[in-house]
Amino acid sequence: MLMPNDSYGKNLFSDMYTSPGNDWEGAAPMYVANFVHKAKHPLFAVRWIQEGKKVITGAARGDIITWNTQAINSQNSQTSTVHSGTRVQSIAVSQYEKFIISGDKEGYIVYSNTKMKQKNKLVAHQNVVRDLSFSECSCKFVSCSDDNTAKVFDFTTAKAEFEFREHRSEVKSCDWHPTKSLILTGSKDFFVKLWDPRCGGKGVNEI
């Protein structure tokens, strides 16, 4: 359900209804949609693809489910078993949506194409892969895990180039800067850390 806010009116209604004099505060104009897969497995990761025309979700049984948002029902979804029964915990989409990487409960990262055909699989961590993020050009990506580390991988070789170990607890989230060689990681140790993978994680800033 869309929460009431005066900023939403211009996005939901035509111009004739969104003149400056209209007060949208307190209005929840419409229920958007929900996705319910026939298997009804818990979902742990979601991403938009194809400019919002589709959604991909990671499920508890190792499936990646692709939904067509133009016609939302269980018949308009495609299920691909990518992780062989292991919970899909995280998903990231490369530049131009050529590839999708997904991390699971066992610490594996899987490369797939947009048709969800598995292209590569690697052991990335010793525990669940909590988050994934591509660099600007998608030639590298960062992963983070409950094993207290974040790692930078070369996408082409699938080799880990650097392991960041400055957190004292599980690393729950990571994000690569949109245009610069900077990475943010957030941890259960209450810190967000900003670091440059080119410098081996040196000069870390804490937030």
Description:
The protein has 207 residues and is an all-beta fold. The protein has 1 helix and 16 strands. The protein has 3 domains: 1-32, no CATH class; 36-90 and 109-120; 124-207, Thrombin, subunit H (Beta Barrel). It is 2% helix and 43% strand. A 4-stranded antiparallel sheet has the order 1-2-3-4, with no helix packed on it. It has a 4-stranded antiparallel sheet with strand order 5-6-7-8, with no helix packed on it. The longest helix has 4 residues, at 9-12. The two termini are 33 Å apart. The model has no long low-confidence stretch (mean pLDDT 85).
Task: Looking at this protein, list some descriptive labels.
207 residues; mainly beta; Thrombin, subunit H; four-stranded antiparallel β-sheet; 1 helix; 2% helix
End-to-end Cα distance, whole Å, is 33 Å
Instruction: Give the helix/strand class.
Output: mainly beta
Helical residue percent band: under 10%
Please, what is the average pLDDT? 85
Task: Work out the number of β strands.
Answer: 16
Shape: globular
From the 3D structure, determine the CATH topology of the largest domain: Thrombin, subunit H
Oligomeric description of these chains: single chain
